[in-house]
Write a structure and sequence with these properties.
28 strands, 25% helix
Length: 499
């Protein structure tokens, strides 16, 4: 029995030893194979030089793609279009083309002498590039995009039938239209917080004007043209809207020396879409001699700023078949394309979006007398301040509140005035609705007369329907207020009287 146990144990050891040898051999083979694969991959990913010539020796570049055919000629340090020497050619694009073809490299070799060029898109190449060096002309043909992870493009050079893959940047650098090869003018540099007026003439929709009468650092916007009298603008909404004017950009240029703007719908007096006038200013640093002398004495640098006013005129014309708009800025002879989304951001959807919804225009701290009239009965709230001198000789301001000539505690005053100050309009009256209210006999539900320091406001709430009251602010009415909110405020007035 002992002999059999030893034999079984010896067989097990032999089996384990054989397993170790097999594992070690397999690991060795895998290591060699892996190392070989890494070498092959490294060899495969190493760039292949297709052409190397002096960049300065390239005197012409001609490319043909699905958009256009252009031949560029070099005159010293500048490129120009053979067909139109005055064409404002984008020199950066032209120099990039010259740099690429002067040191042309492939990512990898694909195949030599393929049976069918069509499978690589090279029977009828997407782009054909001809370029003249110091002594010879070369041609590069670019075909389909490669399915490889590098997302390159198939190519062949001159009469060589070897197919290579080149980086995608080679393709994109020669895939411009003649419009895209045109250098663009700079757009106006506009800081949106320094816009003082925006006037839009929109023949298809409505005219819109927003004016900022700023006092110091405070903005005070009003909306005009859309209503028969100016209305207070919503500073936050207007600022957000104006943000689009601080990032104007073109898609591309269409013409650089246009003689017929009417064909694009770009006549200033008869624009197809809109004529926009934008007033803004910039602050520039100035330093006079007096400042320099003072700086020497105090060893402090003091920079003063000067305001320079500007005006930008933007004409938006027809749309092309892709939905882009033709655009002209100021007196430029250029015609540009701007995408539909960008243009939509420059035009207001409707004026009401930019109107201050809060009905009260007088702050609580500035109110001196508020008269609310309901069903012929007046509810009068007054606020009086008096200055006294305390025992230390310091002046103190005491504020007293009254409701119908009876003393009113501060908390009750705050509750009523806050309730009034937070009433808002809910929507805009249509022209048809406005005529309806004007035609019928006015039923005044609530009349409000507010006096403040140097300011006065009169508002009336007129019966309209089951859900809204028409709001008449001053001489005209444009908006509706939620009936529930106004009724709740009226009830607070009545409750206060009973206290």
């Amino acid at each position: 029995m002992a002999s059999k146990g030893k034999k079984k144990k010896r067989n097990t050891l032999v089996f384990l030893f054989i397993c170790i040898l097999v594992f070690a051999g397999g690991y060795s083979l895998l290591s060699v194979y892996g190392s070989k694969n890494e070498e092959d991959e490294e060899e495969q990913t190493e760039e292949i030089e297709l052409l190397s010539i002096e960049e300065d020796s390239i005197s012409s570049i001609e490319f043909e793609n699905s958009f256009c055919s252009m031949k560029l000629l070099n005159r010293g340090e500048e490129w120009f279009w053979e067909k139109d020497k005055k064409f404002p050619l984008n020199q950066e694009y032209a120099n990039d083309m010259a740099e690429i073809i002067s040191n042309l490299k492939a990512i990898r070799k694909i195949v030599e002498d393929p049976d069918d060029m069509e499978q690589f898109g090279l029977k009828d190449p997407a782009i054909t590039i001809s370029f003249q060096g110091a002594s010879e002309e070369n041609k590069l043909y670019l075909g389909d995009e490669s399915p490889s992870s590098d997302n390159g493009y198939y190519c062949r050079l001159n009469d060589d039938n070897t197919i290579y893959e080149v980086d995608a940047s080679v393709f994109t650098s020669f895939n411009y239209s003649n419009h895209q090869m045109m250098v663009l003018e700079d757009t106006p540099e506009i800081t949106t917080t320094q816009i003082t007026k925006l006037k839009i003439k929109n023949p298809k929709e409505f005219d819109f004007t927003a004016v900022n009468k700023a006092i110091g650092d405070s903005s005070s916007w009003s909306i005009k043209d859309s209503y028969s009298q100016p209305v207070v603008g919503d500073e936050s909404e207007i600022s957000t809207f104006l943000g689009s004017y601080g990032s104007l950009s073109y898609k591309e240029a269409v013409e650089y020396n246009c003689k017929d703007f009417a064909s694009y719908g770009l006549e200033e007096k008869k624009p197809t879409t809109a004529f926009i006038q934008l007033d803004y200013y910039e602050l520039v640093d100035v330093e006079n001699d007096k400042d320099k002398e003072e700086d020497k004495e105090t060893e402090k640098e003091e920079t003063k700023q000067k305001r320079i006013d500007h005006q930008a005129n933007i004409v938006i014309g027809n749309q092309n078949e892709d939905g882009d708009y033709f655009v002209r800025i100021n007196d430029s002879s250029y015609v540009y394309l701007m995408d539909e989304e960008s243009v939509d951001k420059l035009l207001p959807d409707k004026a009401y979006l930019y109107v201050e919804k809060t009905i009260s225009r007088i702050s609580v701290d500035n109110m001196t007398k508020m008269t609310f009239t309901v069903d012929g009965k007046d509810y009068i709230i007054t606020r009086k301040e008096k200055t006294t001198v305390n025992d230390d000789g310091e002046e103190e301001t005491q504020t007293d509140h009254f409701f119908n000539n009876k003393t009113m505690d501060t908390s009750a005053f705050n509750a009523l005035t806050v309730s009034w100050s937070t009433l808002e309009t809910a929507q805009e009256l249509t022209k048809k609705e406005k005529k309806q209210v004007e035609k019928e006999e006015e039923t005044i539900v609530l009349s409000v007369d507010i006096e403040g320091t140097g300011i006065h406001q009169n508002v009336q709430f007129l019966a309209f329907n089951k859900s809204y009251y028409a709001v008449k602010d001053g001489e005209d009415m444009f908006f509706l207020a939620d009936k529930r909110d106004v009724d709740a405020f009226i009830q607070k007035l009545k409750d206060q009287e009973e206290e």
